[in-house]
Design brief:
about 200 residues, globular, disordered C terminus, mainly alpha
Amino acid sequence: MKDDFLRPPRTPAEWTADALRLAGLLGVLAAAIWLQPTDAGIAALALPALVLPRMLGLRAWFDVTAGAVVLVAAWSNVFELYTSIPGWDLLLHFACTGVLAIVAAVVLTRTGVVMVTRDAGARARTPLVLLPLIALAISALWEMIEWLGWTYISDDIFVTYQDTIGDMVFGGLGGIAAGIVLARVAVERGVRVVSAASAR
């Protein structure tokens, strides 16, 4: 992980991914100076998700995708897009939970908890089954954090029963999509892409 984290960017996509990480860090500083403390906290929550793909040595296309999705999700909260644009909340729960489920699957595989990725010897159906479950777990944690924030920090955080269930449903759907991606596409550098024929 240390070698991957310190590895200098070599391609335009890798430079883009690092630029997104820098934007995330500068965004936290900007929010701390010009916006509310809660906004800075929300922006800061994105930082671990921005750094993990680089630490894990994930492919640049996924690194860029993950960074963009996580930043959009965080700053949509800061600018209240979730409540002002119909369906935006559900779209971001779908995309962000799917991305985070893939990162979590790589971490679980690397730590030997469970073999989820194809390069670790998992069957094609393994991510199809486990990624939705991982995504639902992430969704539940996400909603707990929202509830804690609403209860103890600010009642400006939008929390309702219908919103919570809808978010978890779309998070689960994001997990299904992530499972399909992970069953057929390599997200780690140096891992071959699995063909449709061998994914059966």
